[in-house]
């Protein structure tokens, strides 16, 4: 198999898994929002992004600023939607907002101003998801806002002129059944939707747990290795 065929096979397998999870969860009715696929291309070259675009992929995800910036520039001729899904440093927020179309990892108020400035410079609104931590309270904090901090963060995004609050993103913690973590996420989402009915995206689920995420209402899954193969451990 050449690389294009590998990617094509990976995409077909993941799309079939998504469809099976949708029907298994009774989410195949006409009013279901469906499940969008964001292909996570971190660690893989721009040539793979090009092949994916040719295979019909529109949404791609990256988690490191420098790599994402370079790849977005190399692929500027393609009609892609770039999702920034990685940790954000506040001094990089403006730069990320200049090339990202969706920032999924807003997890503290300090980032709002920089993202808003970058979106203003680019002259268009930036879609933002608030990243929620699903770690049990008191555990060593991974990325993401504590569920109780989500309402204030959502307000801060809504108040920024060039940002559009679109919903939530989360990563299931290690060492717990993903279904249990995603059930907590669904509750956080219910609360958010009560105040912000248009913030209805839910980005959850990766190669290992997309099935559970779809069952919990994910509108977007972020899938890397199941499509592109395993990433090098270090680079
Ligand atoms: C790398 C990454 C993914 C994709 O992970 P896979 O297990 O390769 O599918 C999804 N979400 C985030 C935030 C990531 O960093």
From TrEMBL:
The modification N6-(pyridoxal phosphate)lysine is found at residue 42. Belongs to the pyridoxal phosphate-binding protein YggS/PROSC family. It holds the Pfam family Ala_racemase_N. NCBIfam families: YggS family pyridoxal phosphate-dependent enzyme. Its cofactor is pyridoxal 5'-phosphate. This is Pyridoxal phosphate homeostasis protein. Keywords: Pyridoxal phosphate. Pyridoxal 5'-phosphate (PLP)-binding protein, which is involved in PLP homeostasis. GO terms for molecular function: pyridoxal phosphate binding. InterPro entries: Ala_racemase_N, PLP-binding_barrel, PyrdxlP_homeostasis. Residues 50-232 form the Alanine racemase N-terminal domain.
